């Protein structure tokens, strides 16, 4: 929409008529810009859909509150019900000394209401404060402008791009061989030998978070929710041109699930003899008894491409004896959802494979519920180690019913799809869902569907709420299912109407982010976004748009509509987290030292941009330190599906959703620093040099070869340095003798060789040395064959001393080629060439 003075004047007139008595109309000389709503919008409860409506309702409520009106007098004529007055009062009261205190006097007064009105109406600069009494306000006009920049949000500023970024995140999490079309320039193949401890190829899938754990439950939750976002809002993926990106990700994770299942009887959905699922690789023990093998995945800080041989990646399995219905149900939901999406895109063959596999996963989860052999005395699920021992691993759900409810909904939709499923099978899935709804206590729930653990409420362990949303959409005439709409609304209302001190633990930050208070200040965005996605989908598909409107306020908070003006989606906006708790994005070549202030090689900011990552988010006071703490700075598979689901809803619904990036990653994100500063350079392979000594008969140079590869990081074993020198008059290469000392066992030196007239070179060959751009300690090394050589404390570098000897009267120049600039102080020397095999990978050739 192109804003002119007409809609601005019209809006101002409307606001004045609604009670904005303090508003000073603009003059022709005042700068006019597009309206600036305050988010999260007070108009959410009124169901206002466009920016004009929201401006009017927000302005009316704020001005009345500032004037002292409360109760019905506050909301009359706004579109809100009298019963909403208390929630609105609480909402405003929570912000009176923070995000609504624009003039800085620690209170919300008519002066603030006037400033807000003018800013919302498009006024800037001196026009904001013109005619207002000075009072005791400590902020100048410029300071007010700076303060409110974080509270201004432009409608429809880039939802399509945010959706594009959110899907990119999953490409950054890929394990195994990368998917076709993977766009992440700093990722490479990783953990290709996963599953070797049980004699299987289990490469592939997604890493759970900022480490290298692979959990089928979080993978399946993400896969199911991504598919559900496409089922609910196919138009969004068309408008944002993201169908291909989505399908690539769904194939990558669901193809991995195919690998994890060992089924000697694939033609039967009832024969589970020998049936086994690998559910977890490298997972941490949930109770420490026994602990995971050491060294575990958290003992190193480096890219996934480098950790083979440095951590133990134990495979955990379930079968008919030690059961895993929770994981199987979630996998069934993911694969059935992917079957529907791929069939809709024309890949009927892969869709049929996914659907067949999903049917049997569902049948297994129903036939083999948890029992005493499968759980601890406290009811926590267990799995089998490669040796057959029992192991309690994290990321499990003690009740499989919520996953089965979502799987049943996905299977019902797929079975009812012409050319894909069998409509006769659909009835069984519907019957299961209605039975769960009719008899919740028989399936491990109480009458309120209570689930105890905070993360399972709307995290990867409990999919009851998205399952209900989909069932309600699929069965509009089914009374048994539609009766659950009131339960879903009651649950969503706990979030939508949350207040700062709500007794049941559903609260809201001063800036408007709703959260569940069960885990203090940690991971606020995880459950919020997953709930937001359910609210948005239910609101739009049921016609209860108040839930969509609320969901959009929460999404807008995440995209920058918060007191700090911070986007919590990496790459979106200009103020987003730069220090993720994420090993790959960090790009450290010195391990934990790279993220520890004061250590050699410390890098304050992530070297790589993991576009679309959404970390745990702010604290309950809206603050965010951006300091790599696990609870606030780590992104995860079970965080992002809600973000993507909410974005899909908004991209589908709103008229102005912006454009996607023509290039992702953006060209600027891959600019590299090629300086010769040791601590900051982005050179991947380079040499260091120091003149160790010289005389009339020799030159000695201390050399170091560095592997700091990060695009992607990789281990190399065939590196060599080529040292160039100028021959003095009357000297030939035959007059020189090259030797090497002080190096690792595999270092060798070649014969001096003529490059061209007057210039020679000699190779210092480190072939056989494993150069790996990370740092570990000897105690953390895993025995491998052949054993690693060299210093384990400096795996990214090897050293050796080159000596060139010659007879008196012969010699080489001390200031030319690889010796140019070399002194008794160690420097990065780009005039020494670095090769991998016979390919030049660093330095220059004269």
Strand composition percent? 5-15%
Secondary-structure-based class equals: alpha+beta
What is the count of helical runs? Answer: 23
In CATH, the architecture of the largest domain is: Alpha/alpha barrel
**Termini, distance in Å?**
58 Å
Structurally, the number of domains stands at 3
The CATH class assignment of the largest domain is Mainly Alpha
Shape: globular
Task: Note the main sheet.
Answer: 6 strands, antiparallel
Give me the CATH fold name of the largest domain.
Answer: Glycosyltransferase
Helix amount, in percent?
25-40%
Poorly predicted regions are 1-54, 149-156, 450-456, 777-793
Radius of gyration, CA atoms, in whole angstroms:
31 Å
Number of strands: 19
Task: Characterise the protein shown here.
The protein has 846 residues and is an alpha+beta fold. The protein folds into three domains: 5-151, no CATH class; 159-668, Alpha/alpha barrel (Glycosyltransferase), CATH 1.50.10; 685-842, Endoglucanase-like (Immunoglobulin-like, Sandwich), CATH 2.60.40. 32% of the residues lie in helices and 11% in strands. The chain has 23 helices and 19 strands. The strands form five sheets. Strands 11, 13, 14, 15, 18 and 19 form a six-stranded antiparallel β-sheet that branches. Strands 12-16-10-9-17 form a five-stranded antiparallel β-sheet, with no helix packed on it.
Q: How would you summarize what this structure contains?
A:
The protein has 23 helices and 19 strands. The protein is of the alpha+beta class and 846 residues long. The model is unreliable at 1-54, 149-156, 450-456 and 777-793 (pLDDT under 50).
């Amino acid at each position: 929409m192109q804003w002119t003075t007409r809609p601005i004047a019209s809006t101002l007139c409307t606001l004045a008529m609604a009670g904005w008595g303090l508003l000073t109309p603009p003059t022709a000389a005042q700068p006019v810009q597009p309206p600036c709503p305050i988010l999260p919008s007070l108009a959410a409860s009124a169901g206002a859909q466009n920016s004009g409506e929201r401006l009017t309702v927000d302005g009316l409520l704020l001005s009345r509150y500032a004037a002292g009106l409360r109760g019905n007098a506050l909301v009359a004529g706004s579109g809100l019900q009298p019963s909403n007055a208390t929630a609105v009062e609480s909402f405003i009261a929570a912000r009176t000394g923070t995000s609504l205190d624009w003039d800085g006097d620690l209170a919300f007064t008519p002066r603030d209401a006037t400033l807000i009105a003018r800013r919302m109406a498009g006024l800037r600069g001196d026009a904001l404060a013109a005619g207002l009494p000075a009072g005791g306000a400590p902020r100048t006009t410029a300071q007010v402008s700076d303060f409110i920049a974080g509270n201004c949000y432009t409608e429809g500023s880039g939802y399509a791009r945010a959706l594009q970024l959110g899907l990119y995140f999953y490409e950054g999490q890929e394990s195994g061989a990368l998917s076709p079309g993977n766009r992440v320039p700093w990722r490479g193949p990783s953990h290709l030998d996963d599953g070797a401890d049980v004699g299987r190829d289990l490469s592939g899938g997604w890493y759970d978070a900022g480490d290298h754990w692979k959990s089928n439950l979080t993978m399946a939750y993400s896969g199911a929710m991504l598919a559900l976002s496409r089922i609910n809002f196919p138009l969004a993926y068309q408008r944002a041109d993201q169908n291909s990106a989505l399908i690539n990700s769904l194939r990558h994770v669901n193809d991995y699930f195919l690998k994890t299942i060992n089924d000697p009887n694939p033609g039967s959905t009832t024969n589970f003899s020998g049936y086994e699922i690998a559910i977890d690789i490298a997972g941490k023990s949930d109770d420490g008894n026994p602990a995971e093998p050491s060294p575990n995945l958290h003992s190193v800080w480096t890219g996934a491409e480098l950790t083979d041989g440095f951590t133990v990646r134990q495979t955990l399995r379930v079968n008919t004896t030690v059961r895993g219905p929770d994981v199987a149900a979630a996998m069934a939901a993911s694969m059935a959802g992917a079957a529907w999406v791929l069939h809709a895109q024309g890949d009927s063959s892969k869709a049929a494979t996914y659907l067949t596999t999903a049917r049997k996963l569902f049948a297994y989860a129903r036939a083999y519920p948890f029992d005493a052999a499968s759980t601890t005395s406290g009811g926590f699920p267990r799995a089998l180690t490669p040796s057959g021992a029992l192991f309690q691993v994290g990321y499990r759900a003690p009740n499989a019913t919520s996953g089965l409810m979502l799987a049943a909904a996905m299977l019902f939709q797929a079975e009812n799809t012409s050319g894909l499923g069998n409509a006769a099978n659909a009835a069984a899935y519907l019957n299961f869902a209605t039975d769960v709804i009719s008899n919740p206590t028989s399936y491990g729930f109480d009458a309120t569907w209570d689930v105890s653990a905070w993360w399972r409420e709307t995290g990867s362990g409990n999919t009851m709420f998205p399952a209900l949303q989909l069932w309600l959409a699929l069965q509009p005439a089914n009374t048994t299912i539609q009766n659950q709409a009131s339960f879903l609304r009651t649950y969503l209302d706990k979030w939508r109407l949350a207040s700062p001190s709500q007794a049941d633990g559903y609260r809201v930050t001063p800036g408007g982010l709703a959260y569940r208070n069960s885990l203090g200040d940690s991971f606020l965005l995880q459950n919020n976004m997953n709930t937001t996605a359910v609210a948005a989908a239910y609101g739009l598909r049921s016609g209860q748009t108040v839930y969509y409107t609320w969901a959009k306020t929460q999404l807008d908070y995440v995209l920058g509509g918060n007191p700090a003006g911070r986007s919590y989606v990496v790459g979106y906006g200009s103020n987003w987290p730069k220090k993720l708790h994420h090993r790959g994005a960090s790009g450290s070549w010195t391990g934990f030292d790279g993220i520890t202030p004061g250590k050699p090689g410390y890098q304050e900011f992530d070297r790589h941009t993991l576009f679309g990552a959404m970390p745990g988010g702010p604290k309950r006071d809206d603050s965010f330190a951006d300091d790599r703490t696990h609870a606030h700075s780590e992104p995860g598979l079970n965080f992002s599906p809600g973000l993507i689901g909410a974005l899909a809803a908004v991209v589908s619904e709103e008229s102005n959703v912006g454009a996607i990036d023509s290039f992702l990653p953006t060209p600027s994100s891959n600019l590299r620093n090629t300086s010769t500063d040791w601590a900051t350079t982005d050179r991947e392979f380079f040499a260091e040099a120091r003149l160790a000594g010289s005389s009339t008969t020799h030159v000695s140079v201390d050399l170091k070869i560095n592997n700091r590869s990060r695009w992607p990081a990789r281990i190399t074993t065939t590196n060599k340095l080529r040292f160039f020198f100028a021959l003095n008059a009357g000297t030939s290469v035959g007059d020189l003798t090259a030797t090497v000392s002080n190096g690792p066992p595999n270092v060798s030196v070649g014969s001096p060789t003529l490059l061209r007239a007057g210039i020679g070179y000699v190779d210092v060959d480190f072939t056989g040395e494993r150069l790996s751009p990370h740092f570990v300690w000897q105690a953390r090394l895993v025995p491998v064959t052949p054993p690693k050589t060299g210093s384990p404390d400096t795996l990214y570098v090897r050293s050796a001393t080159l000596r060139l000897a010659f007879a008196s009267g012969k010699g080489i120049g001390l200031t030319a080629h690889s010796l140019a600039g070399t002194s008794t102080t160690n420097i990065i020397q780009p005039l020494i060439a670095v090769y991998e095999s016979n390919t030049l990978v660093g330095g220059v050739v004269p």
